Amino acid sequence: MRIEIVRETAVLSAEVALLRAHVNELMDAPRYRTDGVADVPEVRTTPRSIEPLVAERPTGMVAPEVVSQREALTDFDTAAGSRWGSPPSGDRAASVPAPAEPREPGWLASGVAAARGWLFGGNTIVRLGLVILFVGLSFLASYAAAAGLFPIEFRLAVVGLFGIALLGIGFRTRTKRPDFALALQGGGVAIIYLTLFGAARFYDLVPLSAAFVLMIAVCALGCALALLQRSQALAVTAFAGGFAVPLLLGGEGGNALGLFGYGTILNLAILFIARARTWRVLNLVGFFATFGIASLWGATAYRPEHFVIAQIFLIVSVLIYVVTAVLYTRATPGKFGNAVDTTLLFGPALAGFGLEVALIGDRPFGSAFAALGFAALYLGVSLVARRRQQEGLRVMNEAMLAIGIGFVTMAIPLALGARWTSAAWALEGAGAFWVGMRQARWMPRLFGLALQVVATLLYLGTLDDNIAALPFANPAFVGAILVALGWFATAWFARKTIARETIAPGETRLARAYARGEGVIATPAFLTGFAAWWIGWMMEATRLYPAVERSLAPVPVFSTNVQILLAMLAYLVSAAAFQTIARRRDWPVAAWPARVSVGALWIGFVAQADRGGTVLSSPGCFLWIAALAVHGWMLFRSDRDGVETPGTRAVASASHVAGVWLAVVLLADMLWYGIDRAALWSTAWNEVTFLAGAVAVLAGLTLWAGPALRGDRAATRWPLDRHALHYAWTAAVPIALGIFGGAVAIALFSSGDTAPLPFVPLLNPVDVMVALAAGVLLLWRRTVLAADAVPAGAALLASKRIWLPIAVLGFVAANGAWLRTAHHLAGVAWEADTLLGNALVETGIAILWTVIALTLMVVAHRRATRSLWLAGASLLGATVVKLLVVDLYATGGGARIIAFIAVGMLMLLVGYLAPLPPKVSSDDTKRGAVA
Fold this sequence. Notes:
Elements: H1 2-28, H2 51-55, H3 64-80, H4 90-95, H5 107-120, H6 124-147, H7 152-172, H8 178-201, H9 208-229, H10 232-249, H11 256-274, H12 280-300, H13 307-331, H14 342-360, H15 366-387, H16 394-415, H17 418-439, H18 442-461, H19 475-493, H20 509-517, H21 522-541, E1 544-545, E2 555-556, H22 560-585, H23 592-595, H24 597-610, H25 620-641, H26 646-678, H27 684-687, H28 689-709, H29 720-730, H30 732-749, H31 765-785, H32 795-798, H33 803-825, H34 832-836, H35 839-863, H36 866-890, H37 893-913, H38 922-930
Antiparallel strand pairs: 1-2
Helix pairs in contact: 1-3, 6-7, 6-8, 7-8, 8-9, 8-10, 9-10, 9-11, 10-11, 10-12, 11-12, 11-13, 12-13, 12-14, 13-14, 14-15, 15-16, 16-17, 17-18, 17-19, 18-19, 19-21, 21-22, 22-24, 22-25, 24-26, 26-28, 26-29, 28-29, 28-30, 28-31, 30-31, 30-33, 31-33, 33-35, 35-36, 35-37, 36-37
């Protein structure tokens, strides 16, 4: 015994010296490639200084691990070629490019390479022969049983003894022929598995408990042999044969306890080996075999009475391989922390959850509870691993955390409705984003954003009538609010620009793209959250009471108009609240909804008018008062506390201008409310309503903002201190154009029905409103031109051309007044053909035109304005043409006589009172124009 120990020691010393020599030569030699170089001589890999020790190595006493090391070194030398030979010349070495980093093969390629390496590496004939022998023995046992050649006990005993013989021979030759020995031992273990399982499972020759004990012993023996000889191949062979037993022997799978007990014993043995060795191939063989056989059995032989057994086996198997993945990570260092076996990390989650859903998916909330169970497992493992605070386990911890969060995310839609699911996902997404911020990692943040987007789309996709008996405590409202809170939280976390240094230089293209876009996340996140927040309040405002009976329809809580105004008020109050938060928390984006609050007022008004509602209808009037008050308060706060930028100034100006235009339609709507109450829709009172509102607003703007344009300090309070020009010019120009067009249209087309009051020429609603419109337009023009700084676009108001549209308005108003007078006092029908064909109307028009021409020419003569006199003369000429072309043939005798006499006398009067003024100099002309 002592002599053998000495020999073993000598052999180990020689191999250690050999390995040390190789390492020293590798470290001393420069790195270069010799691919394709034929003139570099091969170098001996065995130092001469240790040759005597190698020569003294006794035969038959070489340990398996020594042989493995020697084979590895020999393979390394062969692959390197002349790597350790004399280096080439400096030029040649410099010209050789650095070796490219090899690409890591995929899982399929790795599996094929591993199988090819096992079969064709080492003693291929022995390994292939064992496979064929193993299958042949299985067929022999089946054939003997079918033919009845020998008793079953004898057949099983022969097969078992043959396996024991292989095991014994392999163990005895482990030092002389290690590869041959390992193959025999693996085959022997597999045959023993086959024998024991067949005897207990199919033939009842061995009690089930005794078979379990024996199989445990075989597993222990296989584990001991594999660990003793440090042979992953032996372990893989033994366990592959063991897992193949149920498949080779077949059967109907009725004895679920025996099958799953057998599989559990194998998995426990793999777990035992995983504590001492990082044999990944063995772990994968056990994993795929376990869940593959379980899936096959579940698809072909599962019955409801197997539920408990199958459930216990599935739980135990998942736990075993999750623990195996953790053990592998703890014992396998890598370049960036400990290596992670992704197959074992994600595999039990995917395969196990699929099988679990197949077991309990038909039960109430079964799939949801399954997802929560897997989430608890992975989150618990992550928590325990984090408490150890081992930096090398960071990747595994994060993967476990991600899997656990994924199962929590999956459990929500499996248990809840779509709206509750969207709410939960939104909060979960915000939490994931926060975790990514705290850990300075981009993938959790991206996952959180993606989850929130999905949650929002899911909620919007399920929007429907909110039928609920309880206010606020309903899925439509709560779901929207929770979605909004998730987005608000994300916007708050991302309100400061995230440092791009959190993205490592070596990250993927997706990481770099995400880093570029992450700086703008805060604004859209908040705006999305505010939109969801407002949708929630809108859903509450439009809530319906459930029907008392199934045949009845749900009843709205509020009327349609009130629903619209409540939704509008909800937006305004929410915007005001967030404006306060923005001011106190230095969160500028939170003030954005307040800056566009006038849009909510416009939408509310249009929606209400579309449904026949009015501003003064109760209780809508009180809601409008509150809405306008909140809007004004937000405008004041925005101007006082807002950040002054070109964009914010433009938005603030637009809000004030749009508010003025809204005042026009609101005032007109109030007047229409009175028209409706008095039933005057078919009268002139209704026709002048919008014009009256516009005239009133323009008059108010002129009188209110005019002094501020002239520099009156008393009139420069808010909002005129910064928006006087916007009120008096920007907002007033469209109103003035509308007033002009409306006045012309009403003067031409309104019949002037003043019911229930009698018609009075020039004192009816149409004529009075047209006169007020012209007066307000002239007042506004004068106010704008009197400003200290005339607006850039107001040059037209100071030119002569501006008098042309004013003259047109006056001319149309005078003719319209006569037509309405003839309609009401003379009974002429209000139709174009009737009016133009009536002799009285034509005579009156001729006289009216002559009077207007006389007035113009007299005024022009007194002011010495030749152009104005010519305009009057042109109108007088048009009157004469009308008399000769139209009135001479169309009118009757008396009317024609009156027309010709009146026009002739007026023309004589014009010639006496207003002859053509003389030409004057350009300076006089300018002074006359100004006058």
